[in-house]
Amino acid sequence: MTSQYKFSKKYLIFIGVVLVATAFALGFQLGAQNNQHTAAAYLLNKSVPLAIEEGGVDFAPFWKVWNIIDEKYPNGREVADQDRVWGAISGLAGSLNDPYTTFFPPQEAKMFKESISGEFGGVGMEVGIKDKVLTVIAPLKDTPAYRAGIKSGDKILKIDETATNNLSIDKAVSLIRGEPGTKVKLTIFREGDSEPSEIEVIREIIKIPTLDTEKRPDGIFVIRLYNFSNQSPLLFREALRELLRSGSKKLILDLRGNPGGFLEASIDIASWFLPIGKTVVIEDFGQKSPEHIYRSKGYNLIDNKYKVIVLIDGGSASASEILAGALKDNAVATLVGEKTFGKGSVQELVDVTAETSLKITIAKWLTPSRISISEQGLEPDIEVKITKEDIEAKKDPQLEKAVELLK
Q1: What is the largest distance, in Å, between two alpha-carbon atoms of the chain?
Q2: Is the per-residue pLDDT at 251 higher than 80?
Q3: Residue 180: HSE in the Cβ half-sphere, 13 Å Cα cutoff
Q4: What confidence category does residue 97 fall into, taking pLDDT thresholds of 50, 70 and 90?
Q5: Name one GO biological process term (predicted).
Q6: Do β-strands 345-351 and 155-159 pair in parallel, antiparallel, or remain unpaired?
């Protein structure tokens, strides 16, 4: 995510710009003979032709349904015309089958902007859509979700009594968030379980952890990075000072359960490992415009004198995948663990009107070797899974494997 709401997963979870050429945001510019009519003008003026010639869009079916609602649906005329327009735009955004492209009517737009600019009550987990199911990317350390035992990969079937099968990510997030001290009930299905379970979580003001360090007795230095906030580059720099003072040349960078965050943070951190000019990530706009390559700033402190292992799992997403992919493709680090989540799309936020907005996917992230993060995720160089038995025994075979490789 950039400061202009360019998201690299979320945080989120957490967030969006192609300029919409029309006030209605249907993306169509209608009319002929240089008349710059917008779709909104057509929808609110029934006297215009229903069909647009020369390969344009035929709005006759739209108006037929509109009139059927007026004529047949009980109290149909009591629904404001403008609310129907918002519903039509929401359907248009949904037709892309992209869970990260969402239209926000006035109230939802207000809530979304508040959620990315200030504190909020929630349970402390990042969610996304995986295999068309609302899925936990990662619970954040020391949050209500983490303490309740929610795990990366858990499928959320219901939020309180609302089924999630037709919810957008942003709508799901709005239902999970709420006033601190209130409860939310999540119906969860976990791989390996025979049936869903219900987990009740009490909301809190979420304070997102960033980074921990550890100098192990065997001399290996560990940096655990929990997110890519605007503070992460500074804290990572401090962690590297600790690494230098320790004298260790063996580093484990733990990105497990890290749902991502700011794009700039991932580029800044990658720059400590890569010479200047090396590719960190490629922003692919498809046929809309030329791709953009983000390159290392060349701090290059962690050179070939260091041995580096990066730990990843299904909770590593977005900026985590960007950093891990950059280090892997530039032969700086070995990836150990499990396949990452696969959140590699870029969203930007567009104001459609003064009170509404559209969060739309505009590009995909590619690793330096042009692996599409959103389509494939990242495969570890060495796969190590953590079983339910490992968790119960409080074992960490992924960390143990990283230590083994460094020794």
Answers
A1: 79
A2: yes
A3: 9
A4: confident
A5: signal transduction
A6: unpaired
Rounded CA gap, 161 and 163, in Å?
A: 6
Reading the block at residue 133, the tokens are 């199911």
Domain 120-205 has CATH 3.50.50.60: no
Residues 249 and 305: beta-carbon distance below 8 Å: yes
Active-site choice (328, 329, 359, 374): 329
Q: What Rg do the C-alpha atoms of the chain give, in angstroms? A: 24
Which position among 130, 343, 359, 364 bears the catalytic label?
343
Residue 232: strand pairing partners: none
pLDDT in tens, 328-350: 999 999 999 999 999 988 888 89
**Which pair of structure tokens corresponds to residue 291?**
């791709």
The structural domains of the chain, with segments of one domain joined by +, span: 120-205, 211-347+362-406
Q: Give dist(CA 72, CA 147) in Å, integer.
A: 51
Q: Please write the tens of the pLDDT for every residue from 29-81.
A: 333 233 333 444 444 454 444 445 455 678 888 889 888 888 888 876 677 88
Give the separation between CA 300 and CA 403, rounded to whole angstroms: 23
Q: Is 329 a catalytic residue?
A: yes
Whether residue 1 is predicted with pLDDT greater than 50 in this model: the reply is no
- pTM summary value: 0.75
Q: How far is CA 368 from CA 272, 293, 313, 320, 328, in A?
A: 17, 9, 20, 14, 9
Residue type at position 129? I
Contact between 337 and 398 (Cβ < 8 Å)? yes
DSSP track, 305-354 = TSEEEEEE-TT--THHHHHHHHHHHTTS-EEEES------EEEEEEESSS
| Fold of domain 211-347+362-406 | 2-enoyl-CoA Hydratase; Chain A, domain 1 (3.90.226)
Judge whether 232 counts as a catalytic residue: no
318 belongs to the catalytic site: yes
